[in-house]
Protein: Glycosyltransferase family 39 protein
Amino acid sequence: MRTALVLFVAAFLPRILIAHFLAGEPVWDGHYYDFGAHRIAQGLGYSDDVHVGGAPVWHPWCHYPVGYSAFLGFFYFVFGERAWVPNVVNAAVSSLLPVFTWALAREGLSETRARIAGALVAIHPGLILYSALVMTEPLAALATLMAFWITVRDPHAKRGIALGALMLGVGALVRPQALLVAPFLALRLWDARTPTPFRIGEWRVWGKLLVAAVLACALALVPVLPWTARNCRVMDGCALVSTNAGWNLAIGAFPRATGRFETLRASDGCREVTGQVQQDRCWLHYGLEQIREHPIHWLSLVPAKLGFTFDHESFPVEYLREARPHDWPETRRVAARELLTAVHRFLLIAALLGCIAFVRKGRRPVFAQGLLAALSALLVYVAVTSPSPTFWPLAVACALVPWLPIPGRSEWSSALLLPVSLLATTVFAHAVFFGEDRYHMVVTPVLCILAVAGLRKPAMRRA
Structure:
């Protein structure tokens, strides 16, 4: 408890100061999240007004996920719709991230390593600056880490999986991608079996894992389904959480795609649509059609998508500059971007080292871990020396290596593999859709955990 309090206070003080002095009017997606929160606080639901015949008519929303707006709307309702409310709320949410990073990490690492992981999250400049933004990423990361912690903390594995899945469903209302990690909660059953997650031949265990994965997916949908029912009732069709998946797929696949966000126009397709659900489905069909007709073009964009996601960190600076341009002259803007990017890249390198064990005995383990270290060094060299910095392969390696049965590997319990699954599903999702650097903020705590996990002793085989 003392460690949790220290981490929270150490994180909260710089975050509340940054939010107080730098936060401005919510911009970009933050404008819509904040507008939705005000409407919810006023008892109008997730909606806006459209004018028909000169009179305002209530118009329901579900283009953006509702979770963050509902969360912020609760505090607007309790404390009033004051400008300081999101500042304090976001600072508090962001300050809980190091606490749950530490709590989760200590289930799979030593207490010292776990404390360092929590401290890294507490002092991470990108996360500190992000607390001044009205954006979903800190809350999405917190909900997912809490789900993982609940899963691995409960001494009864099945109950832990069930409770973790329900928490994950709550997080899916903030970030629907959270549902992608639901099957991985079943890894909690594997902890007592073997330190290697993929061991051929234990078919009975595999069957139990499959059943647990299916049940976890089903339970994760329980908190979501009431919102889905609401969408079916008030929208022009049913939508699980939100109606931006089709848009995002089209943005990542249409002829003008660059790998990052581009504005879709009616001239690109979907000219004659009305409701949000109909529009999203139209873009979904359009995106799938583009992938079928031009698969090479779509696949060729994957490096660019992952590059925009993992190669740099500039979104917090650009968001705050958009809100208050006078606070961000060009020299400060460039310096802040370079600082955030440098810290992010260093963290990626450290996270890659977290996949390597410290081996001194055994020819095969020493050779395997030495080869892994050499390949990692090569990736880092290419990332640093390329004309255009290329750090996204490091994120891909961090998402892949912990699953491989490499001789001499360290212990990878569910407390560590679940965070890795968040990184892996994030890599997958943005390879499919499109990339922006703000999307890696959700996995920054995961990178901090991996960064302190390096050079551990090889795992001991259990019976």
Q: What stands out?
A: The longest strand covers residues 47-52. The radius of gyration is 22 Å. Residues 2-228+307-451 form one domain.
